[in-house]
Amino acid sequence: MKIRKSARAIVINSKNQMFLFQYMFDYLEDSKAIWITPGGSLEEGESFVDALKREVYEELGVQLTKECPEVYYRNPIYTLKNGEKVQSVEKFFLVVLEEKSFSFDHWTESEKKRMRAGKWWSVDEIEKSEDEFFSKDIARMLKELASRKLPEEPRIIV
């Protein structure tokens, strides 16, 4: 089984909102658009932290200069349209930003094709939404991170 490692940024502002992209997963067996955190695959020889910095710059136009703690992880298995299974190894890092607007000038062709929208979400909006999110734990995660009480060690999410 192919393994895909990725670094994900849980971007939170001082209003305790999380920034998410609506992304169209058209290459998966069950193609659908879901709200996801900024981030993406590690490149050859790249660490998770280096990938995090590169992805945040590519997708948001922001240079990360502060250390971003790893707070969560997950390892879902996805099925591609051709039937191939992929084990995803995802590490989530807390990124606190006060950007009023982001730059999307550095998106890859894949991102330009699949990114549908970007939005700041509150816990209340997430809990009331019928949209699909990257994790069933998203509201709990945002409540926990908004309190700035970080897990002592990265915790698994679903």
What's this entry about, in short?
The protein is of the alpha+beta class. Helix content is 22%, strand content 34%.
Q: In words, what does this structure look like?
A:
By secondary structure, this protein is of the alpha+beta class. The chain has a single domain (2-156), classed as Nucleoside Triphosphate Pyrophosphohydrolase (Alpha-Beta Complex), CATH 3.90.79. 22% of the residues lie in helices and 34% in strands. It contains four helices and nine strands; from the N terminus they run ββββαβββαβααβ. The protein has helices at residues 48-60, 109-114, 123-128, 138-146, and strands at 2-12, 18-24, 33-36, 39-41, 70-74, 77-79, 85-96, 115-121, 155-156. Strands 1, 2, 3, 4, 5, 6, 7, 8 and 9 form a nine-stranded mixed sheet that branches. The longest helix is centred in the middle third of the chain and has 13 residues, at 48-60. It is globular and about 45 Å long. The protein starts with a strand and ends with a strand.
List the domain count as a whole number. Answer: 1
Principal-axes geometry comes out as globular
Low-pLDDT sequence parts:
none
Kindly estimate the percentage of residues that lie in beta strands according to DSSP.
25-35%
Please state the second-level CATH architecture: Alpha-Beta Complex
Number of helices: 4
**CATH topology title:** Nucleoside Triphosphate Pyrophosphohydrolase
Mean pLDDT metric: 93
> What's the total count of β strands?
9
User: In sequence order, what are the helices and strands, one letter per element?
Assistant: EEEEHEEEHEHHE
Major sheet characteristics: 9 strands, mixed
CATH superfamily descriptor: Nucleoside Triphosphate Pyrophosphohydrolase
Q: Distance N terminus to C terminus?
A: 20 Å
Radius of gyration: 15 Å
Category from helices, strands and their pairing: alpha+beta
Helix % is: 10-25%
Q: According to CATH, what is the class?
A: Alpha Beta
